[in-house]
Write a structure and sequence with these properties.
Two copies of one chain form a homodimer. Chain A is α+β, with helices and mostly antiparallel strands and about 180 residues long. Helix content of chain A is about 40%, strand content about 20%. Chain A has a three-stranded antiparallel sheet. In chain A, strands 5-4-6 form a three-stranded mixed sheet. Residues about 1-30 of chain A have low confidence and may be disordered. Chain A binds a DNA duplex (30 and 30 nucleotides) through helix 5.
DNA sequence: TTGTTTTTGCAAGTCATTTGCAACTAGAGT
DNA sequence: ACTCTAGTTGCAAATGACTTGCAAAAACAA
């Protein structure tokens, strides 16, 4: 990383370790850790699987952490201070994180894959409702296809069955004709 | 189409019109027309919307007609006698057919869109179960997500909600270790 | 048959994503 | 703290799905 020698792990993690008291760290009820402390957890996951905790990876995780909806590679890249890392590195890191189960890939059919940080051990499995007019994304809580999945698996003798389910429609705002 | 001047509409349709008695023409119970007669119906749909019935389009429809599973553009192209038409024409025709509602697009997450002929007026809405090991595709009858779709639409105030749902898993044959 | 409009082939372009490779660095070992 | 090495990164170039521009060719109506 010759172009940005200052982005070492120390600079980012160092400041993080002083943030234990971040009021947003724990979202009550969910048990999920948020805020910057979350980032420390994430980098620990990397270390735990003996992957190196590099500047680009921390930045990418930090961007993912602050995104409420699945983001494309380009969106993640755009949200990093310019010069932080190469676009290719985002692709490679995302692939790594996906393989580690730290992020989940979604496909909304617009040609670019989207990624979202996985929460909790169950992976926080859920689906999305996407406005076909303004691209607004609504995160749907929980999954209603579990039974279906089991039925389909059993009926066809398949194992390790998973599913991909997304909904598309026109959101309330776009129904009024006000393109947002 | 300088390279294949002999592929006129007459050559294909002509032979079709003599095939009314094709034993596979009507699949009992379903009311769907199959066999070559189906192709005549399809070309009529083109004419009805004043799109030209060309050689390439007939060939493409004929390939789609014989495919049991959604096929990629390349697969459709590969199934046409060489020189029948350009790959680009398959892309363009598929886009046209999709716009007309004659074919439906699916995405199994492998980078290439897949297309399947639509049957009946309801569109024969259904889903697929794909083996992640050997790519085998199982067509699942009916759709189990209709209620969900309505609930999601109502709860979020969306209109014209549709959904995309596919299942992925390991098929019986691949579970035994025999890669097929 | 002619005329108009649509369609096609070919070449080139776009865009997401991947890959080759040399330079670089995080973290382990010393 | 210093070295070593495997894992990472940047850059450039490649890949692959899909699209677009344009002139030649074909469908079909008059």
């Amino acid at each position: 990383m010759s172009s940005s020698p200052g982005i070492g792990g120390a600079s980012l993690l160092g400041s993080l370790e002083t943030c234990r008291g971040d009021p947003a760290d724990v979202k009550e009820g969910t048990g999920h850790v948020h805020g910057k402390r979350r980032l420390i957890e994430l980098t620990e996951q990397l270390r735990a699987k003996s992957r190196k905790v590099t500047g680009p990876r921390q930045k990418i995780l930090d961007v993912l952490r602050t995104n409420r909806h699945p983001a494309t590679i380009r969106e993640v890249f755009a949200q990093m201070p310019r010069g932080d890392c190469d676009l290719v590195t985002v692709y490679r890191s995302m692939h790594l994180l996906e393989g580690m189960g730290m992020v989940k890939r979604f496909d909304f059919g617009d040609g670019a894959a989207r990624f979202e940080l996985v929460n909790g051990r169950d992976g926080g499995h859920h689906h999305h409702l996407i406005c076909t007019s303004c691209d607004r994304i609504v995160e749907l809580e929980d999954c209603f296809a579990q039974e279906m999945e089991e039925a389909v698996a059993a009926r066809n003798g398949f194992k390790s069955v998973t599913h991909k389910l997304e909904f598309f429609g026109v959101c309330p705002k776009c129904q009024t004709g006000h393109r947002v």
